[in-house]
Every structure is written in C-alpha cells, then in structure tokens.
Design brief:
CATH class of the largest domain: Alpha Beta
Largest sheet: 8 strands, mixed
Low-confidence stretches: 1-6
Number of domains: 3
Number of helices: 19
CATH superfamily of the largest domain: Vaccinia Virus protein VP39
Shape: globular
Strand content: 25-35%
C-alpha cells in the first residue's frame, strides 16, 4: 500500500512511559509497561534475546565487518523502549566495524521513558554503563519530532518521538537493517498496522533486512503486502520461531508527487568541501562536515580569531506562532537541537550558559497571544511554560511587571568565540579571502578569490548571510540585509544580576565578564557598520521599557546610563522574505523556470519533473536574529544530505527550508 502523505501530527509533548517494576520469573526486577501490560525485557535474558533476534537476525557482525561505504550503515527501529537494542547494536559496531566506518541509528518511540526510569532499566548491564551515560546525558525532552544525539565520534542516534508509522512516514532517509520491535501485537495492535510496514518499505534501501521476535499472522501479512520477503528462523528461549527477511525492491517515493521540485539531488559523497562564510552558519557547517571525515576549507574575508575578546552575547531563543506552522516547528526543533549541541560542544560552558529565556508580554495583546499559544501547544514545562509577573521576577532575579513565556532550556551564547572554536575543528582549514565568483568544473567547483587565486573543491556551501545572493547561481534567492546594533555597558562590582535572558522588543542577557549587552536595533536594508549614538538611545529606551526596575537599581548603584558612555557592536544580519532560512541544495533557477513554466498559468498543473540543482552547491543563509536556533540544525541537515544520511528533520520541514521555495512562489505568481 502507498505511504500516506498526511500533515504533520500536532506539535505537543508526549505522554511518558508508565512503568511498574516487577520481578520476573527469576526473581529479578524488570520494567513493565502499564500502558500495554507487557515487559520491555526480561532482566534474566533480555540482552541475550536482543543479541539473538536483532543483532544476529540481521547478520550485523558480518555486515558491519564488511562495511566499506563512505556513508554510515543505518539501522532503523520501531520502539526505542529502554534503548537496549540500540546499545547492543552500537557495541556490535565497535566490535566488528572497520575504523573508518560510521553507524547511524534511527528509532521511534511513542511513550519515551523518563530519564530516571531509563537509568534504572539500563543499570542491569554494567558493561553498557559508559554507553548508557552518553545516552542519558543527551536524553531529549518528550516532544514530538526528531531529536539527534551524538553517541560518539562515529555513532549518531536520531530519536523520532511519536507514533511509529507516522514518524517513519516522515523520515527523510534510507535504512539498511530493521529492528522490528515493540510490545507484542496482541498487546499493541495500533502499532502493528499496515501503515507501519508500508512506511518501513518506503524508507528501506534495496536489500534492507529486518528481524522481529514475533511470528503473528498480522505481521507476516503486513510485511508481505509491503514487499518484504519473510521466513521463519529459530527463535530465542521459549519462542520456537521468529521472523527475518529482506526487501529486494522498495517502492518508489511518492511523497513529492505534488512538489517534484523538492526532490533531493543524487548524493555524491565528497572528499573536499569549501564553505564560504565563517559566521555561525558557515562555521557550524564546516564543523559538521569535518566530524564526518571530510576535508573542509573555510573561507572568510576576516579571521574572527583576530578580534580578541568582544564580550558580545547572543540569545538562543525562539518566538513561536500562535497557530502551529512549519516555521515554528523548524525553529523549536532548532532550539532543542542547539541546546544539546552546545552541551556536547562546550560542556564546560565557557562560551554559553543555559540561563533560560523570558519572553515578556508587555501589552494586553501580547498577553492574549501568549495565552492562545499555550492553549494550542501542550508542551512540557521544561520546554516552555507561562508564568505570571511574580514567577517571572523570581526567575529573572529582578522585579518584572509583566507575565511571560519562560523557556528554561534556552540560553545565551558568545557567538564570535563560538565561531572561532568551530573553525578550529580538526579537519577544518581556515583561509582568509573573498570569493569573487563560483564556476562549475568537471571535478566540482572552482572558487575565484578577489586576489586572483583559485580554490578547487568537490562541493561548496554558501553561508555568507546578507551577501549570499551575490553569486550568479544564487541571484534568484532574495536576501535582505538587516543592520543591528547592540549596546554594551561595563558594570561595577556589586551591580544587580539577571538570572534569565529577558526579551521583549529587544533582549538583555545576564552580564558576562562584567559587561551587560542589550539591544538590538532593527534596520532593514541598512548595511552601515558605523556605531550610532541614536541606536544606543533606542536600546536604552527599550531596556527601560522592559526592565524598569532593573534600570532603576542600576542608576541607584551609580551606573551612568548616558548613551555617550556606551560602547557597541554592529552587525548585519540577513532575512528572507518569509523569515525562514534558506537551507539545502541551490536550485538551477533557469531550469526551474523552464521545467515548471506551466505553474504560471495553472498552479495545479504540476509537471512530473524532479527539480534540477547546481550539482554539489549548497546554501545556509538568511538566519536572521534567531541564527543560534536555526544554523546548527541546518548545518546538520546539509552535512547529512551531502553524506547520504537520514536527516535530522521531517521531510515536510526539509522542504519548507528548501531555498527553491521562493523560485516556485514567484513562478506561481507569474513574477
């Protein structure tokens, strides 16, 4: 049966697993799901069963030992549970795979365990302790969506929280081996339905294998109808038989039948990638590629390492729409992703602090908007919660007069210093220079520098913010420069301290190194880098509007808040017309105008032609003021696409970020 192309499920928190710790037939305690009245595993033989059914059932020791592909070996699983299956697969990979191989794990889970329950469950196997600690240290919030975890330098885990069939239908990636797990079909019939097997088939590679503990008729029929060949093989312990098999020819991908222009280009794994632009978008992309063993040349007109200490702070935060839309989904995924990414990148927190962010509601209109948002989005309070003025004041450590949305997991970041750290990732070579033009070549791309020199690369990523559209290949992607000025104030010892980043019309993070940052102004179309006293005046007015008592305490402490006493930092951000970043392959705009010309006359006449792109040319730009929440996730998306891996976002969100969306919009509007 075809995979249904349905809207994304609601953006919400998930009900956690409800456990009852009972003794099994050996007298050992094992977790039992009260939702399904079934055990996750037997403490006596649970690991041995996993090894027999899933690891040996998919012939993983031999296949991993023989793995020579540049892309990772991908294992998909229905039902993460306690993570035992995936930890055993990781251990098998470490024991058998060549040194240069990589492993990518993809697992769905409808009822995620609480971290403390997960720790208790995995404590049964002391030899898995180090692996379990890596998992527990990154265990995500129970929010529907994709959550990427870096288990080690060679092993990545994508947790897809939600219904298994829905999540796999949204997966952008291909699987080599399936762990078809979950509570028994008689206990959990909702999972073992035809849509699950169809979704598995649709995201399988030719020859993908599967193994499962059950021989239930509904499973055999569902697998066969989806195209899998199954056979009975010896089961484990008291189970005489289990199923294993493979799919020779997965069905064609029909998900983009109505949007063929978003069909992804054929992967061409590179040896060397040039990344143009060393800001957060470019530096995070360079680091993501280098972690995958690709040589990267990072090119920029100036070296951020020469700037010294800037004291500049940026906020990791989002402002989500009242009604769930694709943009809000992408930004929330980015917020959660960046939080885990920063914790792994800088565990000492020398470049960031998980301070949380308060988004003040200074007007009745904004208060009503926030209330509607909370009604529409039942997310965990650890992600976002509504607080009154008293609770907001307690979180901020200073008296506030307005209620707010509180994002406890949000943060502030030192962006320039972070870019320097990313540029120092092993495998990244920094080159100072200005790229004047790009030209396709037989070997890939030739980058002509303004000084007359050239750089050859297999593929190229453009990450030059407001200048991203200046190349001939990207001129169809409109980008608006937006000037912003942040004011900086040196605080005396004993000055009041904020406990949260506070946002309203502007933002102010807790002071770092004795310097208070606040701002920023918003100047669309303005590229002047000169500091302006008038902007300091505007920033001071916004600071006092949002935090009047904080400003009053500063003045009482003798702090001079005259605009002429402030220093500042000026930057030019970039925004797309729809305020969503451009992330993905660069479309061949001329070819799109030719192939999809019929859309100008009738938008329902969709030609059956996959979108043509400039081979090996990518873009990550137009991140605006929320780049810390979008750029690192976009870096992973581009690196995963280049390296033929499963993507860290659902395919509708991948399409939403696609830079060709603007070309199609203009075609339909006959522009």
């Amino acid at each position: 049966m075809p995979v249904s192309v349905s809207p994304l499920p609601p953006l919400a928190g998930l009900e956690p697993a409800r456990l009852d710790w009972r003794c099994d037939d050996t007298g050992e305690s094992a977790p039992l799901s009260t939702q399904f009245d079934d055990v996750y595993f037997s403490r006596h033989d649970g690991r041995a069963e996993t090894e027999h059914v899933f690891v040996q059932g998919n012939d993983l020791p031999r296949r991993l030992a023989d793995w020579q592909a540049q892309r990772p070996f991908v294992i998909g699983e229905t039902g993460f549970g306690t993570g035992l299956n995936m930890l055993c697969a990781w251990a098998c990979f470490d024991a058998h795979a060549p040194a240069g191989a990589r492993l990518h794990l993809v697992s769905t889970e409808r009822y995620p365990l609480r971290r403390e329950d997960l720790a208790q469950a995995l404590a049964a196997w002391p030899d898995l302790t180090k692996r379990a600690e890596r998992l527990l240290g990154q265990w995500p919030e129970p929010v529907a969506g994709v959550h990427r975890l870096w288990l080690d330098e060679r092993v990545t885990l994508d947790l897809h929280f939600g219904d298994a069939a829905e999540r796999l239908a949204l997966l952008e990636g291909r699987v080599d081996a399936w762990f078809l797990d979950g509570f028994a079909p008689a206990k959990n019939p909702e999972m073992w339905r035809p849509e699950l097997f169809a979704a598995m088939a649709a995201c399988s590679r030719p020859g993908a294998t599967f193994a499962t503990f059950t021989c239930a008729g509904v499973v055999k029929r569902g697998l066969a109808e989806a195209g899998f060949a199954w056979r009975k093989v010896p089961g484990f312990g008291r189970k005489r038989e289990m199923l294993a098999g493979e799919i020779a020819s997965p069905p064609a991908d029909i998900r983009r039948a109505r949007t063929p222009w978003f069909s992804p280009p054929t992967p061409q794994p590179p040896r060397h990638v040039a990344v143009i632009g060393a800001g957060i978008a470019g530096a995070s992309t360079a680091a993501a590629l280098a972690r995958r063993g690709i040589a990267v040349t990072l090119i920029d007109r100036f070296d951020r390492a020469e700037l010294g200490t800037t004291h500049l702070q940026g906020a990791l935060y989002v402002k989500l729409a009242v009604e769930t839309n694709l943009q809000s989904r992408a930004y929330l995924a980015g917020l959660l992703h960046s939080r885990r990414w920063l914790a792994q990148l800088d565990p000492e927190q020398s470049l960031w602090r998980p301070s949380g962010v308060l988004q003040l509601a200074l007007s009745e209109q904004e208060q009503a908007r926030q209330a509607r948002f909370l009604d529409n989005h039942p997310l965990p309070e650890s992600v976002v919660r509504g607080v009154d003025a008293e609770a907001a004041s307690a979180a901020a450590g200073i008296r506030l007069e307005a209620p707010a949305l509180d994002y406890p997991g949000a943060a502030w970041v030192k962006p320039l210093e972070l870019c320097v750290k990313l540029a120092g990732t092993p495998g990244v070579s920094f080159r100072r220079g200005e790229v004047a033009s790009l030209a396709a070549s037989e070997a890939g791309w030739t980058l002509a520098l303004a000084d007359g020199e050239t750089i050859a690369a297999d593929q190229v990523v453009i990450a030059t913010a407001s200048e991203a559209a200046r190349f001939s290949q990207t001129q169809a992607l409109p980008v608006q420069p937006v000037r912003g000025q942040v004011s900086q104030l040196k605080l005396p010892d004993g000055a009041p301290a904020l406990g949260r980043v506070v946002c309203a019309g502007g933002y102010v993070p807790p002071a770092a190194d004795g310097v208070l940052n606040f701002g920023a102004t918003y100047g669309p179309g303005d590229t002047d880098m000169a500091e302006r006293e008038g902007d300091h005046t505007a920033n001071l007015a916004e600071l006092e509007r949002g935090l009047p008592h904080f400003v009053a305490v500063l003045r009482e402490a003798g702090v001079d808040l005259s605009p002429e006493r402030l220093t500042g930092r000026v930057g030019v951000r970039a925004a797309s017309p729809d305020k969503t970043p451009y992330c993905g392959p660069v479309p061949d705009a001329g070819a799109w105008h030719e192939d999809y010309a019929a859309l100008a006359k009738d938008a329902s006449r969709v030609p059956d032609v996959p979108g043509r792109h400039h081979p090996g040319l990518w873009i990550s730009a137009a991140h605006g003021s929320r780049g810390m929440a979008s750029a690192p996730l976009c870096a992973e998306l581009i690196a995963s696409r280049i390296c033929d891996e499963p993507l860290p976002l659902e395919w509708p969100l991948v399409d939403h970020l696609h830079p060709g969306r603007r070309v199609i919009r203009d075609l339909i509007r006959n522009r």
